[in-house]
Amino acid sequence: MFFCNINIKNLLHNEAFSPYLLKYQPLKFTLTLLFLCLCLTCTAATGNSNVDSLKQILKQAGSKTSADTINVNRYNILAAAYFQSNPDSAFYYGQKGVDLSRKIHFDAGLANGLLQTGRVDYFKGKSAKAQRELTEAVTLFKKLGDKKGIATCYEYFGAMYTLLADYTLAIKYLDLAIDINNQAGNDEWMQTNLYKNMGNVYFSKGELSKSLDYYYKALFIAIKNHYTLLSGNLYNNIGAVLQNMEVYPNALNHFKKALEILNGTDNTQALGTINQNIGEILLAQNNLDSAIIYLNKANYIVKKQNDKDGLSSVYTDLGLCYAAKNDYKNAISYIDTSLQIAKKYKIVYNQAYALIGLANVYNQQKNYKSAYKNALQGRQLSIKLGNLSIKANAALQLSKALAGLGKEASAYQFLKLYINFKDQLKSNESIEKSTTYNFELTFALKERQLKQQQHEKDLIYQQKAHNQRLINLIFVVIILAMLLITGIYYREKRQQQNINVMLEHKNHEVLNQKTDLDEQAKKLHDLNNLKDRLISILAHDLRAPLSTLRGLFGLLQDETITHQEMVAMIPNVLKKLEYTSDFLDTLLFWINSQMESFDTSVKTFSVSELVQNEADSYEAEAGLKGIRYSTKIPQGLTANADPNSIRIVVRNLITNAIKFSDYDDSIQISIQQDEAAQKIIVKVTDTGVGMSADQLNKLFKSKVESKNGTNNESGTGMGLLFCKDLIERCHGEIWVTSKPSVGTEFTFTIPLIC
Fold this sequence. Notes:
Helices cover 73% and strands 6% of the residues. With 754 residues, the chain is an alpha+beta fold. The strands form two sheets. Strands 2-4-5-7-6 form a five-stranded mixed sheet. Strands 1-3 form a two-stranded antiparallel ribbon. The N terminus is likely disordered. It holds the Pfam family TPR_8.
């Protein structure tokens, strides 16, 4: 008879994230929440409540807000997430969290990091190191007042002492964890894990009835709360108990149920344990080839996990399979390797299991001396374990070895001891099988009650859904009735509106006649205004050059100048004639622009060259009045606009500046480029007489009272209105700032070339 060595550590750790694992920072909530939700989504299959976990983490958020604390929390999350599939990665991230927490004195992160590294260390058999880490974590959690953190540490202590076969300490710590969890509000996820761990302790002790009691309690809570992975692990544990009772068909059914739940998940630890348990049943039934297949599957998983406990256990099972096939070389090799691993990592149960296995193989080979030596050591460990089944197997192997060595009396004593143990086991098995049956009946009854409750909830939901559909139908009928009434009202309203329209149409015919007359009068008024504009612009812009020409020709007629003087004046006269001719052309252009059929010719041109030319044309006129005249025009600036329109505007602004400036005043014409706004800015600034606020408000209007200039120059006051029209036609803007006796600055913009 072969005893099932359940891989306790693989069964203990199926949590996704303990809800108290991390302390998130309130001021970093936005940065951490996304990462947290991603990790919770990855572990949703465990059945743990993501919402509850998130609430708990936010509830325990600390006051530290640095980027380092955020990184610590992330490391601890990754450590928890990797434990099921890759314990080495879990330890790596847990240790990074510990190191960084110590550096920044972050107690919450340090406690959680130690929790993760301690779990991995005892999982790998490093119990002394794990004990130090978990003890420090308990101290920190007590300082922080975190009861759930303390309970988790005690849970891991219980699991570790179960492996070390110190069942008194294991039960003590698990009882403490259960009490603390109840005080903290009875988290059912944690309660399920604690009951499962307590079942593991009693299973290892050989007290199968108590073990089943805790397993069924845990399974009921897991099913009720839809903790999927926990349910799978508990089915496996119950199957292991049934396997130990040699109720193999029921045990296999439970293992298959566990596989059905866990297949397709990343919980490789549990899958390895289930494959090992199935292999052990097949071994007990002497189906050796199939047993080896399942055990090799388990072996592949535990090697990948670097699970020393699981590796030791599987090697012993494989050795027993090969011994049954009379392949003693492989059998001794596997079991001896198992024994060395168990000794190195102080896994007491596995040591006893391997020693008794070796004794069995040596007895088959009739190497009774080696068999006796290993069986005696196995018996000593079985006494420490207190497991009746292990004691019976050790006594049987000792009896065989002593008989082979010719020590019949001693052999007979151990045979009697073996028979006594077997009688006790049979008695216990009868009680345990009866207890198991009762547990199964109780669990089945609870399951039926749970299904009945769910059925009742479904019926209530269906009734509510039916009532809601009925209410929806009533609302639909009411809405349809309202739509019908609205349609009838709308139709009647439309008929009334049609009648009103017919009456209004007759009134409109009368009113339209009056409107036509008003429009004709408005057109005549606009034409009259246009005529006034034309006359004003002629009077405003042609008076000065014509007066100059008239005076020149008068001098020639009176012969008051000599021939040489006339020759000297001819270039200036020609320049004036050329400018006057050009001005007439631009004037006609502006007049044409006021017509409806005018289409502005927008093109790319050199603003620098155009403005410089206009500025040069008036430099002499400014000099005659004693005005300081300057330009600030960078070369190479181009724009998209109508150049003729811009020329008229620049000319008008310069003449206005000269008109209202006096001796020793200054005029500056400047251009700059605004790349951000994609436009050219042109400014004409003078230090002349300036304008009052009232005068500024009247600018760019159709009716402006023109004032004479500093040399009594006259004008119509219409020039700025023309400038505004032309700039806006070029998609630009124009504005002015001025103060009396300080000066005036006219500014306009035009689009920059793309």
